[in-house]
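In the laboratory, one determines a bound structure by crystallizing the protein with its ligand and collecting diffraction data. In a computational setting the workflow is compressed into a single prediction: the sequence and the ligand go in, and a structural description comes out. We illustrate the idea with MF3.
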Amino acid sequence: MVELKTDESIDAMRAAGRVVAQALTAARDAAAVGVSLLELNAIAHDVLRAAGATSPFLGYRPAFAPTPYPAVLCASVNDAIVHGIPDGYRLRDGDLLSLDFGAELGGWAGDSAISLIVGTPRPEDVRLIETAQGALEAGIAAAVVGNRIGDIAHAVGTVCRTAGYGIPDGYGGHGVGRHMHEDPAVPNEGRPGRGMPLRHGMVLAIEPMLLGSGRDGYHTARDGWTLRTNDGCRAAHVEHTVAITDTGPRVLTAL
Ligand code: MF3
Ligand code: CO
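The predicted complex, in structure-token form:
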């Protein structure tokens, strides 16, 4: 069931989303050669605490997961697509790092992700991340009253496929509200004009995941959480929580 949010609730969700943006910015600013993923997790956790917010990631256990998620941040390096668990790994020059973070404040959730390059960029990684951001922007632009879920999915998927990238089937965006994961599912590929009509008060996380080789294959790593590309290619993941309103899409997880 899809719960429509009042304008007051969307304002409250914006406050939660701002905390997400602040934590991701702090983690991005700290990400450098030699810094560990656990250090980034601690930095993001400090921002959360300072804001009086809590983590919807920590202890989260969806049906597919063998263990509760043990951190507040997902840190996915190179061939890790999403849900990388922060550990003692120290970032190396040229790593492609995707950071995914959520916050709960005042009973409302926010969810967002960024991808970045540590140190010296490879041109192909720059293109991958820029395409991911373009796919997210296209998805946001399609998040308007009068469109349907399939229009968002089609917009995201077309940008990814046109650039030659792979898309992992079975993972994508979702509704956001009092819980981080709500209905409806927001796939990263789809047919225009299909699916649920978009209405004022719907809040969606749109989250393209792009596989650099153009192949779609992925698997879950032995930790039961991390999704990795089958061929070892690098992946990018970006995400915003977006409110659909009569005056257009409102990005809730921007700074
Ligand atoms: N943004 C991620 C998603 O929508 C949130 C992962 S929560 C975690 O899948 F607990 F799995 F990290
Ligand atoms: Co999400």
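The two ends are 30 Å apart (CA to CA). Keep in mind that any predicted model is a hypothesis to be tested, not a measurement.
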